[in-house]
Design brief:
The structure holds two protein chains of two kinds.
Chain A: H1 18-28, H2 30-66, H3 77-87, H4 95-108, H5 123-134, H6 161-167, H7 176-181, H8 193-205, H9 212-231, H10 239-244, H11 248-255, H12 266-286, H13 293-310
Helix pairs in contact in A: 1-3, 1-8, 2-3, 2-4, 2-8, 3-4, 3-5, 4-5, 5-13, 8-11, 9-11, 9-12, 12-13
Chain B: E1 24-26, E2 32-36, E3 46-47, E4 54-55, E5 60-63, E6 72-73, E7 78-87, E8 93-101, H1 124-133, H2 146-149, E9 160-165, H3 174-181, H4 183-197, E10 201-207, H5 211-221, E11 227-232, H6 241-249, E12 264-268, H7 269-281, E13 287-293, E14 301-306, H8 311-317, E15 325-330, E16 337-338, E17 352-357, H9 358-361, H10 374-378, H11 385-393, H12 397-402, H13 413-417, H14 424-444
Parallel strand pairs in B: 1-14, 9-10, 9-12, 10-11, 13-17
Antiparallel strand pairs in B: 2-8, 3-5, 4-7, 5-6, 7-8, 13-14, 15-16, 15-17
The chains are: A mainly alpha, B alpha/beta.
Chain lengths: ~325, ~450
């Protein structure tokens, strides 16, 4: 008699895999990649390549030689962290500092906790946070995309839109359409809103993320800054400037939506996104830093276990709508 | 078409309804049949025949004596070869009656003619008695004794009878063919059931991937009063009892309760046909339609099979087991059971036999949970499979009871979807078994 495989049901498997998710995110980041190269030139390419190699390399080396466990460095998750870390940096960052940031992002924020799926904080943002604390000068010098050419290595810097908002120099702010297309200063991935939005639509279409987190994050910022602007239009800028400047687009679509560090059910995700929006706005308006996105996401990451514990999905049978 | 469906969760596996166009064919009788005395939930039937007895088609061979049990009838005419035990499809011991087939002589009481008898003269009590006598059990796969379901306790009422013509499992097409070829008989059966339950209305749910069945059943249902057809959106598990009640009657069965607690009774179209035959033709349940299918199978078919015929025999009639078959399943790919051997009998609940290729038979390698939340979003019961899995690994049974792990209907949507190929349903089954154990121990005290 022949031998057959006997296992428990279900006997069919869907085609959605972890690698497909990770590489799907990489594809969604392609428009932002093109925008980064277009605006910041060859220096941007160097930062991106170094970040990718360092992140994947760190994970590979740790798994192969330190932990001597299964090597999963090429499943796409380290690549996503590398891209997102690079997109959070100015193109003029010294390349050795990118390596340090990658070591922290993968080694400390991810591998120390147990690898894929076990980290409580977004690894790219932990890497960026470490770099901001360690290299404050290079992390706050922003090349001016207008003044520099594609092949420029040592760029001329200028104030970013968020710097201008913080210092009150609103008359020097670029036009909204410039913020939308990305011909402004800032980190590699954050400047072009349209590139991020295209990537975000791709992610939603492929069912890698849902619309709730980006929508509620951006809507909260818009409403909060909008109320402030309506109350005092001289002291505060138009909420559209807040939505289109800085890292909130990249943060809303790619960082806050990171599956590992966001809540498990939709209600929890909405609360998570709204909380991040409030904190981000507070830091931008009243905090010392011009940008609040990174901190707001890291702070809300800390709340995720609490959110998952108290906000549960809607259970079948929980609403009583029939009385016999 | 106004398509209804359930709201929470659900997935869309590929349909693979390969055999949908193949009409039902009665399979030639083998030389010997092996009829299990337990083809239902509850106590096995007690044998009332012994070696050497002569039986006809429809002769009682096992009596259901416990409250939850069912009668078993011979599906062939011939001589009883033995009454002993075999190893069943899951590897457990099971009492069976083996009969050597001689001819095809039916009991005289059975009206063995094909014309449809529409006029219903039986009273509700007579209907339930006939269902009990005929040994009818739920033919959707659960095999719960139907007469027990129809004994409505005082204080409860079934105002809506729901008939399950959904067949949401991929590959299976038995119910589809039944609705196309025996629509009138099924509808008389539904009418009988409605009278027995004294329900105001009967609704037949059919998924939108069977437009021909929807059309046929709607046309025939219009000649009856109180019976309508409700087309349903395609989603797995649309045919699950609780999800079907939600889609058709918009009522949610609370945790731990039964459909009757929201005024509904749900039965499969195959059960409706069996009830028609039992009440109008005095024919007990001893045969059913079985889909034998698979992508590599030479002749995928819908067979009318007598109980006790071996699965091996059916596969031979379809061209034999194809080269490269890795797994043979009794039922559908989402909830069916992989068999350890093929020389096992078809029983009242065997809806299909599926032969899967080697490449589709193995589990994918597991990786870490990436907390994507897909398992939560697809669970039709609104549970948290990732959490149940984690707690199960740590044996934290009390907490598992609190998060309603016992509500799981084992549809498999979570395991199907998980990008990391985690064995979610396996761990949920472990959790359910332990939660029920704790409840039993608590009830004893």
């Amino acid at each position: 008699m022949n031998k057959y495989i006997v296992s428990l049901s279900p006997h069919e498997k869907g085609t959605f895999t972890t690698s497909k998710i990770m590489y799907g995110v990489c594809i969604a980041l392609a428009p932002a990649l093109i925008s980064a190269l277009y605006n910041f030139g060859i220096r941007a390419l160097a930062v991106i390549v170094v970040a990718l190699v360092s992140c994947i390399g760190t994970e590979f080396l740790i798994q192969k030689f330190l932990l001597k466990c299964e090597v999963t460095a090429f499943d796409g998750s380290a690549a996503v962290t590398g891209l997102l870390l690079a997109f959070n940096l100015p193109s003029s960052i010294p390349l050795w500092q990118v390596v340090v940031g990658s070591l922290v992002a993968i080694g400390v924020a991810k591998m120390v906790f147990g690898g894929l799926g076990k980290n409580p904080f977004n690894p790219a943002l932990v890497g960026r946070g470490f770099m901001l604390m360690s290299f404050p000068v290079t992390m706050t010098s922003w090349p001016d995309p207008v003044a520099n050419g594609f092949m420029t290595w040592d760029a001329v810097t200028a104030a970013t839109p968020l710097n201008l908002i913080k210092s009150g120099a609103v008359d020097k702010l670029p036009e909204l359409w410039q913020l939308f297309f990305g011909n402004v200063g800032g980190s590699l991935g954050e400047t072009s809103a349209i590139a991020i939005i295209l990537g975000g639509i791709y992610l939603i279409y492929k069912k890698i993320i849902t619309w709730h987190i980006p929508f509620f994050f951006l809507a909260t910022i818009f409403v909060f800054t909008g109320i402030l602007w309506l109350v005092n239009p001289d002291a505060y800028v138009n909420p559209l400037y807040h939505i289109l400047s800085g890292g909130v687009m990249l943060g809303g679509f790619f960082m806050l939506t990171d599956m590992v560090t966001s809540p498990m059910c939709v209600k929890g995700q909405i609360l998570f996104a709204v909380g991040a929006g409030i904190i981000c706005t507070c830091i931008r308006i009243w905090g010392a830093y011009p940008e609040g996105c990174m901190f707001s996401i890291l702070i809300m990451n800390a709340f995720v276990p609490l959110i998952d514990k108290y906000i549960r999905p809607k259970r079948f049978g929980s609403e009583v709508n029939y009385v016999g | 078409m106004n398509l209804k469906t359930f709201k929470i969760g659900g997935i869309h596996p590929p349909e693979n309804k390969i055999s949908a166009g193949n009409p039902i064919v009665a399979v030639e009788l083998p030389k010997r049949v092996t009829i299990p005395l337990s083809q239902h939930i509850g106590a096995p039937a007690v044998p009332v025949v012994k070696k050497g007895d002569r039986v006809k088609v429809g002769t009682l061979i096992g009596r259901g004596e416990a409250f939850i049990s069912a009668n078993i009838h011979s599906s062939v005419s011939g001589t009883v070869f033995s009454v002993d035990t075999i190893t069943d499809l899951a590897g457990f011991q099971s009492n069976v009656v083996t009969i050597d087939v001689e001819g095809d002589e039916w009991e005289e009481s059975i009206i063995n003619r094909s014309e449809v008898i529409r006029e219903i003269t039986a009273t509700p009590e007579e209907i339930v008695a006939a269902i009990k006598e005929a040994g009818i059990v739920g033919m959707g796969g659960a095999c719960f004794p139907t007469h027990v379901k129809y004994m409505i306790p005082n204080g409860k009422k079934a105002d809506t009878l729901i008939i399950n013509g959904v067949e949401c499992e991929p590959y299976l097409t038995a119910d589809h063919r039944l609705m196309l070829e025996h629509a009138e008989e099924i509808l008389v059966g539904v009418d009988i059931m409605r009278r027995a339950l004294k329900s105001e209305r009967a609704v037949i749910g059919i998924e939108a991937n069977k437009p021909d069945a929807i059309e046929k059943m709607t046309k025939v249902a219009s000649t009856f009063s109180g019976i309508v057809v409700q087309p349903l959106q395609m989603k797995y598990p649309q045919g699950a009892e609780k999800q079907l009640i939600k889609a058709i009657a918009n009522r949610e069965v609370p945790s731990g309760k039964l459909p009757l607690d929201v005024g509904c009774v749900v039965d499969n179209v195959g059960t409706a046909l069996a009830i028609y035959e039992a009440v109008q033709k005095h024919k007990p349940l001893f045969e059913r339609v079985v889909t034998v299918t698979g992508k590599r199978l030479e002749k995928p078919s819908n067979f009318l099979v007598r109980t006790g015929v071996s699965v091996e025999y059916l596969i031979e009639k379809c061209g034999g087991i194809p080269e490269g078959t890795g797994k043979i399943i009794s039922g559908g790919p989402m909830m069916g059971k992989a068999v350890v051997r093929t020389d096992i009998p078809v029983v009242k609940g065997t809806s299909g036999v599926l032969l899967l290729d080697e490449s589709e038979s193995r589990r994918k390698p597991q990786s870490n949970c990436i907390r994507c939340g897909k398992c939560v979003s697809v669970c039709p019961m609104g549970l948290e499979p990732y959490l149940i899995e984690k707690l199960s690994e740590k044996s934290r049974w009390a907490e598992l009871e609190e998060i309603n792990a016992a509500d799981c209907i084992e549809c498999g949507s979570c395991s199907y979807t998980c990008p990391s190929a985690l064995p979610l349903l396996d761990m949920i089954r472990l959790a359910k078994a332990n939660v029920m154990r704790i409840r039993r121990e608590r009830a004893k005290k």
